[in-house]
Amino acid sequence: MSDLAIVLRSLRARRLSTIITALTVAIAVALLLVLLTLRSAAALAFNRGGGNAHLLVSADSSPLTTVLNGLFYAAPPQRPLTLAKIDELRAIFPFEWAIATQQGDSYRGNPTLAIDPVYFEKFQPAAGEPWVFRDGRALKRAAKGEAFEVVVGSTAALNTGLTIGDHIHLTHGSGSSREDHGHVHDEYSFDVVGVLAPTGTAHDRALFVDIESSWILHAHDRRERDGSLHKDDEEHAHDDHAHDHEHEPSADDAHDHGHGHAHAMTTAADLIDDDRLVTGLLLRLPARAGSTTPAALQQVHDMLRRDTTIMVAQPAEEIRKLLNIVGNIDGLFLTMAAAVLVSSSIAIMLALYDGMAARRRQIAVLRVLGFSRGRIAGLVLTESAFIGALGALLGLAISFAGLRFAASFLEAKVGVVIATGVDARAAVLVAGAAVALAALAGCLPAFAAYRTPVWRSLRPLG
Q1: Handedness of CA 212, 213, 216, 217 (dihedral sign)
Q2: What's the pLDDT tens digit per position in 69-79?
Q3: Does 38 or 166 have the greater pLDDT score?
């Protein structure tokens, strides 16, 4: 019988103890792998998601909240800015571009970003990487009488199954809870005209519409609340009734009347200043060729900060601060996971050492059969290392599931899109450490096996 067969038979004889000890190792390995992978993947995702805007302005409570809401769709901003304020900010400095955005609607849980159509030409989801359309085209500026259009991010298209030519109705709010007061804007339909290729950023889960179409949706709600919509409908109905007395309507007239009454309830002509609200303003300053940081960036940032009615953030700087904070917490979790791994190796040592008393007779028999002391100790060390290897393999499998859960949670709650693959270098490092610690833990039981006396262990029982 080979040494490996002896080790495997010994493990099967103590099946329950082996499984429990291996699971302890597996949990520690999985924790370390998930934390190490998330550490690098999240940092990459946050840095990519900042885009090529130098500044982001909102009315949120802090610069970090501004970035998380405006670029990662963590939550819809609660306080808007007026278009007059946006025009005032645009006039402060000769920006390379200044793009207003609005959040607040969604579709099947995917956030909607209302934008100026120039957004796809100027803003880059990841610095140096422009938008790529997997299918269709970008938005056209909303025009009177034309259908509203929507462009769908790659993840949103996957989640909803939307393709070119589909028609959808947006939901006010996220629609995920009663607190959102979500209702469907079923008065207006949006036509899907484009599907974006993956960018590896939070924008993949968003839908994009023209900002004026979003203003019209909410102006319609405002007019329903204040009663002006119903008043206008009565006036239109009166005019239609008077017109009907002048001539009999044709079939085409009846068709136009039905759709006109349904779709022309609110138009751009009905918008007032309070309807033209903005939740974010993306700003990019002119910079020298080859430079990513404009010389006037800090000066403009400080100048904007003097306005107490707005919150201004540098996305790159806020992401750096966030990663520093997360890194400190991450270090604590890594220390705890390493402690769990060391504890699991201690559990292996105790399980094997406690089993030595019951295995002395087995060891003595092997000695009688010609096994040397060193070979006996080697069997115990191999058994210990085997438990560590088994735990490492189980931990690798668990870490895949853990990463998928963590990735979906971060995407849903924070808007960060991370890769779900386990970092290969981390996997080799952690698995090797688990096996090495397990083998080290087997040293004491191996020494006990080495010193087991043959004659005393073979005495008759009882």
Answers
A1: negative
A2: 999 998 888 89
A3: 166
pLDDT in tens, 251-283: 344 333 333 344 447 888 889 999 999 999 999
Does residue 462 sit within a domain?
Answer: no
Instruction: Please give the pLDDT value at position 355.
Output: 61
Domain count, the chain: 2
CB 392 within 8 A of CB 25: yes
Q: What SS3 state is found at 247?
A: coil
190 and 134 in a single domain? The answer is yes
Shared domain check, 96 and 26: no
In a domain, 71, yes or no: yes
Amino acid identity for residue 269 in this structure: A
More confident residue, 135 or 436: 135
Q: Which pTM was predicted?
A: 0.72
- Taking a C-beta distance cutoff of 8 angstroms, is the pair 175, 106 a contact? yes
Q: Mention every residue, 6+ apart, whose C-beta is less than 8 A from residue 452.
A: 356, 360, 363, 364, 367, 376
Domain residues for 261?
55-313
- Residue type at 33 in one-letter notation: L
Query: Within this chain, do residues 115 and 72 fall inside the same structural domain, yes or no?
Result: yes
CA distance 445 to 345: 12
Residue 368 confidence class, pLDDT cut points 50, 70, 90: low
- Is it the case that residue 200 has pLDDT exceeding 80? yes
Q: What is the mean pLDDT of residues 371-378?
A: 73
Residue 356 tokens, joined: 């030595």
Whether 166 contacts 227, CB under 8 Å = no
**Residue 424 counted as domain residue:** yes
- Written as one string, the DSSP assignment of 238-298 is HHHHHHHHHS---HHHHHHHHHHHHH-SS-GGG--GGG-EESEEEEE----TT-SS-TTHH
Final residue before a domain boundary, out of 313, 336, 368:
313
Beta-bridged to residue 129, according to DSSP, are 126
Q: Which residues contact 16 (CB under 8 A, 6 or more apart)?
A: none
Asked if 349 and 439 sit in the same domain, the reply is: yes
Long-range residue pairs from 300-306, CB within 8 A, at least 24 positions apart, any chain: 300/55, 300/92, 300/93, 301/55, 303/92, 303/93, 304/55, 304/57, 304/89, 304/92
On whether both 111 and 198 belong to a single domain, the answer is yes
Given a contact cutoff of 8 angstroms between Cβ atoms, the answer to whether 436 and 428 are in contact is no
258, 279, 313 - which closes a domain = 313
